[in-house]
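Problem 12. The chain below contains 89 residues. Write out its predicted structure in token notation.
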Amino acid sequence: MGDDVWHDEVHWLLDELCVRHGFCLPPGKQQRLLEQAPFMTVDAFTDAVFIAEGMDPSLYKNLRRGVRETVQRRLPAIKHESEWDIRSE
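Solution.
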């Protein structure tokens, strides 16, 4: 996925997380997530959103599940840990 397309997808995801789940991050935190996203898993990205909001993701299991589903649906290029084939790395 090209960098411009990737950045657009992450921006759309962050907008959706704001509207649907109330995670409206300031530009600096959005930029950090944007830079890290290609190297993160769905779970890591989900937790990073909570941490950027100052929240402990382990304390909000139902909300985390909803945010994770949004991340997974919106960014299928991010893989869940179980999808990585460590033999190929």
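Discussion. Residues 80-89 have pLDDT under 50 and may be disordered. Students who got a different answer should revisit the alignment rule from Section 12.3.
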